[in-house]
């Protein structure tokens, strides 16, 4: 006869709380309103007069659209100083799951004109993209934006890089 059943997430005992979306019922765990912090390893511990038994852990992953890593660290824009005739390498990293991302880059020059940057000048590797940008004239300074998308959706905001004369 089952005396006690304990559900755990990352080793922390879960409490039944319908308001927060944790429902323990009939030897089952129901999670509602899941979000990124809900991800982790879940397990069950059962206790009866014979002893204690443990279930295998089940990994819960929450998929989400890309978010700029510099934005996650609280930075609004990365300032990059460069000179004319210089190549600038800009690395853009996104946090996402799944992390097989499609990237695209845009540039707003000092006159305020927007343009998409050619895919030939950047490379992608999972959650990171590397742009090799050549500064030819004063108009090449300005703002460069890195955008990404995955099967869940598009980044709400881009990674922002401000190119200024050195």
TrEMBL record:
InterPro entries: Ig-like_dom (IPR007110). Residues 66-151 form the Ig-like domain. It comes from the Eukaryota. This is Ig-like domain-containing protein.
């Amino acid at each position: 006869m089952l005396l006690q059943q304990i559900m755990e997430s990352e080793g922390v005992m879960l409490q039944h709380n319908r308001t927060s979306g944790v429902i323990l019922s009939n030897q089952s765990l129901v999670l509602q309103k899941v979000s990124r912090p809900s991800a982790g390893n879940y397990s069950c511990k059962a206790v009866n007069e014979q002893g204690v038994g443990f279930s295998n852990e089940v990994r819960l992953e929450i998929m989400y659209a890309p978010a700029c890593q510099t934005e996650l660290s609280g930075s609004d824009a990365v300032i990059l100083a460069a000179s004319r005739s210089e190549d600038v390498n800009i690395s853009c990293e996104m946090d996402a799951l799944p992390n097989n991302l499609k990237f695209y880059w845009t540039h707003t020059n000092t006159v305020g004109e927007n343009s998409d940057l050619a895919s030939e000048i950047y490379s992608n590797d999972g959650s990171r993209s590397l742009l090799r940008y050549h500064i030819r004239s004063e108009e090449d300074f300005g703002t460069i934006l890195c955008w990404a998308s995955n099967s869940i959706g598009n980044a709400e905001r881009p990674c922002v890089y401000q190119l200024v004369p050195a």
